[in-house]
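Problem 12. The chain below contains 189 residues. Write out its predicted structure in token notation.
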Amino acid sequence: MLTSRQARMTAFSAGPARTAALRPAVAVRPRARPTAAVAVRAEISYIMVKPDGVQRGLVGDIISRFERKGYKLAGLKLYQTPREVAEEHYKDLSSKPFYKDLVNYIVSGPVVCMVWEGKGVVATARKMIGATNPLASEPGTIRGDYAIEVGRNVIHGSDSPENGEREAGLWFKEGLVSWEQTMTPWLKE
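Solution.
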């Protein structure tokens, strides 16, 4: 039997094939996955980096904030928004005097559409984004750090789980990606 130092030296000199042979055999059992009948999708939030955020190169930082928080990305695309989609998205504001300007702004350049998934993602995303009026947003929030004007406030986030579902369906007609993050066991009890 080799000592651990001898095994390391042998593995170093013998290469990967020899190293694998020296490792003890370990039975790895795949984790049980829930069946489709009992699987429940986690809460989702639709997040959109608006044209000003895209033009200013803020996309990477915004994505990074959600990744570092531990949320799972379920949809992502750079998108030139058709007027009909912008109008449908903001239909609840159609009676407001700024509605036409808002729609024109959203269709003025590409946006980055994202769907993030996880426990409490809607409420947490709203806190991360900050108040609609950037001047009322706390430092450390996305709008508090990057925006000054209400009309150019960098980002949109769903305001309820129901709107998260509705908005994801509107912007991701092709569906979302279902995948398992390897870090999930490190984030959940």
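Discussion. The two ends are 40 Å apart (CA to CA). Students who got a different answer should revisit the alignment rule from Section 12.3.
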